[in-house]
Amino acid sequence: MAQTFKAILVSRDDDGQKAELASLGDGDFMDGDVTVRISHSTLNYKDALALTGKAPVVRRWPLIPGIDFAGTVETSTYAGFKPGDDVVLNGWGVGESHHGGLAGRARVSGDWLISRPKAISAARAMAIGTAGYTAMLCVMALERAGVTPERGDIVVSGAAGGVGSVAIAVLAKLGYRVLAATGRAQEADYLKSLGAADIIAREELSGPARPLGKERWAGGIDVVGSLTLANMLSMTRYGGAVAACGLAGGMDLPASVAPFILRGVSLIGVDSVMAPRERRVEAWNRLARDLDLKKLDAMTTTIGLGEVPDVAPELLAGRVRGRLVVEIS
After folding, report:
1. CA separation for the pair 99, 225 (Å, rounded)
2. Phi and psi, residue 155, nearest 5°
3. pLDDT per residue over 277-293, tens digit each?
4. For residue 172, what is the DSSP state?
5. Rg of the chain on CA atoms, in Å
6. Strand, helix or coil at 144?
7. The pTM is what?
8. Mean predicted confidence (pLDDT) in 185-210
9. Which percentage of the chain shows pLDDT scores above 90?
10. Which of 67, 86, 215, 225 is buried deepest, with most CB atoms within 10 A?
């Protein structure tokens, strides 16, 4: 018997784009070999862009947005999963060109799923979401580059956002001294509660970058790009590294080659959407071990599916702290 389910659907016509709560059925599924009953999703920066139309994230219409979900397998013809398995999905074009996680059910390729670590509940998995999973990929990238706690401070941009909040909590637990760069001075106590040792005003990284600035940190995690990334690189110590995973400030990079050829600094690109399965599994297992779940809870706000269209503009305006979990009822 066909089942109906609620979903946020984005569509467009001559009057523009709209996002609304809709009732859908099995006939609305896209191709896939695993059907999942979704218990939780999350609202990321990319999701908010898709919902509001502020950037061309959505590639086919109409579409269910949501680049993440956690749930339980209902049916499967994929060899790796069976009914009852708890799974997580991040990326793979879901919520962009394939129906996403802001829905009660989804049908996707089994290649896109991984088993949810038993130590992490579905709600906490979505509190982590793509933002936290990306933060862990960045930490792993710095570790591979040899940036250890004894090498010096780590600077994190966009610190009060999803990636930044999880990155600070993980880095602090691993023994790094973390500098949190933010434009929201009122969030200083929150950031220090996550483990930040000091707060840097966004303005210190937002002006034109010198070819080489004073060496201030051993590494960094950047979600902003543009001038922020250029400044971060110019002030990275000899042999340090910066992991870049975002473009909230722009896609340009007005920087010099000086940090690379005179200080041996590495710029590491971090992609979460198409990361191979083995790296995804490693990241989620590391999150189960290296993220303080009490700190995760402290940075998390839960909303209902019907609230999503109204909250998305608030996220883009920088008025949302930490992580947003969407509980699918």
Report:
1. 29
2. -100, 140
3. 999 999 999 999 999 99
4. H
5. 20
6. helix
7. 0.93
8. 95
9. 91
10. 67
Token pair 């038993």: residue: 118
Torsion angles phi and psi, residue 226, rounded to 5:
50, -135
Residues 255 and 234: their CA atoms lie apart, in Å, by 8
Reading the block at residue 326, the tokens are 């969407």
Helix (H) or strand (E) holding 163, with range, is helix 162-173
Distance CA 37, CA 328 (A): 10
Q: How far apart are CA 211 and CA 113, in angstroms?
A: 43
What three-state secondary structure class fits 194? helix
- Could you tell me if 281 and 114 are in contact, meaning their C-beta atoms sit under 8 angstroms apart? yes
> In the structure encoding, which two tokens stand for residue 97, read together?
């060109």
- Residue 1 above 80 pLDDT? no
Beta-bridged to residue 86, according to DSSP, are 72
Instruction: Specify the 3-state DSSP secondary structure of 307.
Output: helix
Average pLDDT score over the chain: 95
Terminal CA-to-CA distance of the chain, rounded, Å?
20
Distance CA 137, CA 129 (A): 12
Among 60, 66, 54, which Cα is nearest to 12's?
60
Span 177-200, average pLDDT:
95
List the domains of the chain with CATH numbers. 4-116+299-327 (3.90.180.10), 130-269 (3.40.50.720)
Q: How many CB atoms lie within 10 A of CB 79?
A: 8
**Is 90 exceeded by the pLDDT of residue 94?**
yes
DSSP, collapsed to helix, strand or coil, labels residue 297 as helix
**Spatial distance between the Cα atoms of 175 and 195, rounded to a whole number of angstroms:** 10
Buried b (16+ CB within 10 A) or exposed e, 113-128: bbebbeebbbbbbbbb
Task: Produce one character per residue of 37-62: b if its CB has 16 or more CB atoms within 10 Å, e if not.
Answer: bbbbbbbbbbbbbbbbeeeebbeeeb
Match 């005179």 to its residue by tokens: 262
Q: Are 267 and 260 in contact (CB under 8 A)?
A: yes
Name every residue whose Cβ is closer than 8 Å to that of residue 234 and which is 6 or more positions away in sequence: 209, 210, 211, 212, 213, 255, 256, 258, 259
Amino acid at 327: E
